[in-house]
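Posted in: Protein Modeling Q&A

I'm a second-year student putting together a small comparison for a lab meeting, and my supervisor asked me to include a predicted structure for FHA domain-containing protein. I've never done this before, so apologies if this is the wrong subforum. The sequence is pasted below exactly as I got it from our records. If anyone can share the C-alpha cell output, I'd also love a short note on what stands out.
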Amino acid sequence: MGLLDSFERGLERVVNGAFAKTFRSGIQPVEIASALRREMDTRAAIVSRERILVPNSYEARISQADAERMSAIGSALEDELRTMLTAHARTQGYSFSGALTITVRADESVSIGTIDVTSHAVAGRVSWQAALDIDGRRHTLTRARTVIGRGSDADITIGDPGTSRKHVEVLWDGERAMVRDLGSTNGSKLNGQKVRQAGLADGQTITIGRTNIVFRILATAQSERLPQQQDATQIIDAFHGGSHR
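Accepted answer (user: helix_wrangler)
Welcome! Here is the predicted structure, written out as C-alpha cells:
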C-alpha cells in the first residue's frame, strides 16, 4: 500500500460522502499530494552520504474554481498533505532545513485541473508537535499529559460507552511519547495488542472501546517548551529505563 493510498484513507476522515461528489471534476486532493511528492523528489539534493536535503516550504497554486471546492475541507487538507510529505521524507531518508510548511492557494493564472507547485528552503530549526486523530478530528497536544475518556473531566472527551471516564493518558515531552492505561474497565490496545503502558511512534493506533486514536508527530516551527513537559520527560525516562508491560 503506497503513501498516496494512505493519504486517500486519511482524507476520507475529513471529507464526507456527500462532499466527495464535489471532486468528480477538476483537481482531486490526491493529485495535489502527488504533485508535492514529485516536487520533493525532484528537488532532493545529496549533501553527504548520510544526508539528502529537500525544500521545507511548498506552495501549490490551483485555479479559483478548484480552490473553492477545496475550501470546504478547510485546514484538514493541508494537515493531511503535511502528514503525507513528512512520511514520504522519512521513507526516503530526506532531511528538511526547517519546519515543513504547505500552502494551497488560488491563482487566477492557473487553469482548471492544473497544479503549479513551487518550493524553497527556509532556514530554521525543526521542532515536533504531537497530535491525536480521533473520528476525523485532529487534537493537538498542548500539555504534557492528555487524558482521554468519556468523562467531562477528561482533556479529550469521547462519546463511547465502552470507555471509562478517564481511560488512557498520552504523555508527550516534546520529543517522545507514551500511552498509559488509567485502570480502565475494558482495557486498551496499541496496534491491536493489549497494553498497560508503552512508547508511542508516529502512526500507531490506540484503541479504547470502539474508538481508534491515531498518534501523529508533525514538524512545526520552533516553539517554547510546553508547561509541565519536564514532568512528562521524567515519567518517560523512567519508563524507558524500566520494564515495558
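A couple of things worth pointing out for your meeting: Residues 1 and 7 are 10 Å apart (CA to CA). Confidence is low (pLDDT under 50) at residues 11-24.
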